[in-house]
């Protein structure tokens, strides 16, 4: 295990690194095409990293800052896999410490100690993307209070001087004051401790971009077709000497030669190992972790919740994130796939666990799930383990007979120390030179010029909305000014610049233009990883897609066919991987309302009458024209495009009209809580109430009567 470095030493390492390291691309990143040209034209790299997740990007940054000639290829987008689908925590692992103490497991103890050091370092090197977060552990039995308090205090002690803030005990009343949604019954108190939280995909991207600034040739959408090998003159054995790569976008193939190839492919570790030697056995056991996002009102703005013992022994986190609430995770064995899909049973499991800890006054509805995703953890296999829950999240570094260096397992928080250990092994095995690691304290992309008040300058200098300015500062750090400069004039009195992609989120159009500079190649890259819209609200992301595709199409010179393909691919991504399918199925799963027969008849009659107020011609369906006509009668105006979007949410057979049975299914799902905030349901109810309030026009007002 690596020796730990105190925070003062980390800062000294940063100062030293700043003096030694060069940034050939400090002002302007090379384009993706320029990066591909470098990959093809360079005679030989010292290191070729395969995999653009947190660990792979960390390896590239560690290598290039050792003055090694470095390349990185990723077959999809940076952070497109597990690294963007985490719980968003930077933590040492409270439950791992519990296991270490209960089982007297020194290895687990050292893993927690290392992770707590890395937590401190990560918060320091990317202050714009990360921050400490208080997490409450509610206690419902008196004997558990000293037990949990002792465990959490031990967590503080292990962190030592790198403890973020000291944990503390709360009375029942104080706990409810800070977390009013909490279940009051039998609550005896709570313990609050601190861990870190971050924007995982943006953090991964910051690591990769920092590597590029220092001269690493990095390329997304570049897959390894097969490994290159040559016979070692001294031993007569075959040695890996690079990889045959393919540009996924153009189909062009080329060789990238390197003295050392590092396998940092996460769940796909064994695929590359078997590419090296078909006889290799699997060393990774994949585990699926599902998370859901629900509205921000489910949790306080700055207080998370930990459920230490769920109904099946898992740990559930309930955390504020990006003004929403994230809940998860599950932990179940799974098959390896590049496109994991959240299962309905996992979504419902998380919702049920959330219900156990929230007040009965808070109705936890299935329809409040705004997004859901599944991430595959690349756990190191323990042959004696019967299930994935007992597998340690530690990592292994392996050098094969042919020289392929594999880094497998581990966790997000320890990506940097894992990369350092991997490069140490690579340098030793391949005699690369380059000196020791310089990444402790090395500030990541955007962190150098960030300050807590940076957003104020954005508001004052560019005329951005306050919320948008805060978002840009927290996402891009010092690079937020570059995004602001690309923002177009709104034509309004305020804000002066910064047209939003969707009204309820602070993402603006210039972020799409800047995303292309950050190597975004598809619309999915923008909604999932450059912005986090797809992870926060699939419906909002779906609405933003046409504008995103339009902006990217102009910048990347897409044909009409390509634009259509991008739109369809992004919609498929939202539908399958971000939980839109599960959300949509709440409309089609059942058509009956679970009430007694008389109530059912009354409700069906009421909803049918509501429908016919819009379907004046008794066609059996309504269109935007019908809705527009009713809205005009009550002096309400809605843009026609917006109306199309509203009807499309309910138009199950996608024929451009909403039929009576579709409307009844919608109202059934709304009644059960399977669907919430349906715009059509709310719009039609509001319109009906307005019409009823107006009543019939009197004779004198009609101008008639004798």
From TrEMBL:
GO terms for cellular component: mitochondrion. GO terms for biological process: glycerol-3-phosphate metabolic process. The keyword Transit peptide applies. Its cofactor is FAD. It comes from the Eukaryota. CDD domains: EFh (cd00051). It is found in: Mitochondrion. Keywords: Calcium, FAD, Flavoprotein, Metal-binding, Mitochondrion, Oxidoreductase, Repeat, Transit peptide. Transmembrane segments: none annotated. Its main location: mitochondrion. GO terms for molecular function: calcium ion binding; glycerol-3-phosphate dehydrogenase (quinone) activity. Its EC number is 1.1.5.3. Pathway: Polyol metabolism; glycerol degradation. InterPro entries: DAO_C (IPR031656), DAO_C_sf (IPR038299), EF-hand-dom_pair (IPR011992), EF_Hand_1_Ca_BS (IPR018247), EF_hand_dom (IPR002048), FAD-dep_OxRdtase (IPR006076), FAD/NAD-bd_sf (IPR036188), G3P_DH_FAD-dep (IPR000447). Residues 602-637, 638-673 form the EF-hand domain. Pfam families: DAO (PF01266), DAO_C (PF16901), EF-hand_7 (PF13499). It catalyses: a quinone + sn-glycerol 3-phosphate = dihydroxyacetone phosphate + a quinol. Belongs to the FAD-dependent glycerol-3-phosphate dehydrogenase family. Calcium-responsive mitochondrial glycerol-3-phosphate dehydrogenase which seems to be a key component of the pancreatic beta-cell glucose-sensing device. This is Glycerol-3-phosphate dehydrogenase, mitochondrial. It comes from Oncorhynchus tshawytscha (Chinook salmon).
């Amino acid at each position: 295990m690596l020796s730990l470095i105190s925070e003062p030493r980390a800062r000294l390492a940063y100062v030293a690194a700043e003096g030694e390291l060069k940034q050939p691309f400090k002002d302007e990143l090379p384009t993706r095409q320029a990066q591909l040209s470098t990959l093809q034209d360079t005679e030989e790299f010292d290191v070729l990293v395969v995999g653009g997740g947190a660990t792979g990007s960390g390896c590239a940054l560690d290598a290039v800052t050792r003055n090694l000639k470095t390349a990185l290829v990723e077959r999809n987008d940076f952070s497109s896999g597990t690294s963007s689908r985490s719980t968003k925590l930077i933590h040492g692992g409270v439950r791992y410490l519990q296991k270490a103490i209960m089982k007297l497991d020194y290895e687990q103890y050292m893993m927690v100690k290392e992770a707590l050091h890395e937590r401190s370092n990560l918060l320091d090197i990317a202050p714009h993307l990360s921050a400490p977060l208080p997490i409450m552990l509610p206690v419902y039995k008196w004997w558990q209070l000293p037990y949990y308090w002792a465990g959490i205090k031990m967590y503080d002690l292990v962190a030592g001087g790198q403890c973020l803030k000291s944990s503390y005990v709360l009375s029942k009343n104080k706990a409810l004051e800070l977390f009013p949604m909490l279940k009051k019954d039998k609550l005896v108190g709570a313990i609050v401790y601190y861990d870190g939280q971050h924007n995982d995909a943006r953090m991964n991207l910051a690591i990769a971009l920092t590597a590029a600034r220092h001269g690493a040739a990095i390329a997304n959408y570049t897959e390894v077709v097969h490994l290159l090998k040559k016979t070692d003159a001294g031993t007569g054995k075959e040695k890996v000497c690079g990889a045959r790569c393919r540009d996924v976008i153009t189909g062009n193939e080329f060789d990238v030669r390197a003295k050392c190839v590092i396998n940092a492919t996460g769940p796909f570790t064994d695929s590359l190992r078997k590419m090296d030697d078909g006889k290799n056995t699997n060393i990774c056991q994949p585990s699926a972790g599902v998370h859901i996002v629900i509205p921000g009102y489910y949790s306080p703005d700055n207080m998370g919740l930990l459920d230490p013992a769920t109904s099946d022994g898992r740990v559930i986190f309930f955390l504020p994130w990006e003004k929403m609430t994230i809940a998860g995770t599950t932990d179940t064995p799974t098959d390896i796939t590049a496109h994991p899909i959240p299962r309905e049973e996992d979504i419902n499991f998380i919702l049920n666990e959330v219900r156990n800890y929230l007040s009965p006054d808070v109705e936890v509805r299935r329809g409040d799930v705004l997004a859901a995703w599944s991430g595959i953890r690349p756990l190191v296999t323990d042959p004696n383990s019967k299930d994935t829950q007992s597998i340690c999240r530690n990592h292994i570094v392996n050098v094969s007979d042919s020289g392929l260096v594999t880094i497998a397992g581990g966790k997000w928080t320890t990506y940097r120390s894992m990369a350092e250990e991997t490069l140490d092994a690579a340098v030793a095995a391949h005699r690369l030179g380059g000196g020791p690691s310089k990444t402790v304290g090395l500030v990541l992309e955007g962190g150098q010029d960030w300050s807590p008040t940076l957003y104020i300058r954005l508001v004052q200098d560019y005329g951005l909305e306050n919320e948008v300015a805060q978002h840009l500062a927290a996402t891009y750090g010092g690079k937020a000014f570059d995004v602001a400069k690309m923002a177009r004039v709104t034509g309004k009195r305020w804000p002066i610049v910064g047209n939003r992609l969707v009204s309820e989120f602070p993402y603006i159009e210039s972020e799409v233009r800047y995303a292309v500079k950050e190597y975004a190649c598809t619309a999915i890259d923008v909604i999932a990883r450059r912005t986090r819209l797809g992870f926060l609200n699939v419906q909002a992301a779906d609405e933003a897609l046409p504008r995103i595709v339009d902006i990217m199409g102009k910048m990347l010179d897409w044909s009409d066919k390509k634009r259509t393909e991008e739109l369809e691919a992004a919609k498929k991504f939202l539908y399958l991987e971000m939980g839109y399918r599960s959300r949509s199925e709440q409309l089609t799963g059942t058509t009956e309302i679970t009430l007694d027969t008389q109530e059912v008849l009354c409700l069906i009659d009421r909803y049918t009458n509501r429908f016919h107020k819009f379907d004046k011609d008794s066609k059996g369906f309504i269109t935007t024209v019908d809705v527009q006509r009713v809205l005009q009668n009550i002096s309400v105006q809605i843009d026609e495009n917006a109306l199309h979007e509203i009807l499309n949410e309910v138009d199950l057979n996608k024929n451009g009209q909403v039929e009576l049975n579709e409307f009844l299914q919608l109202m059934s799902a709304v009644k059960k809580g399977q669907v919430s905030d349906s715009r059509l349901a709310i719009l039609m109810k509001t319109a009906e109430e307005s019409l009823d309030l107006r009543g019939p026009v009197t004779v004198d007002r009609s101008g008639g009567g004798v």
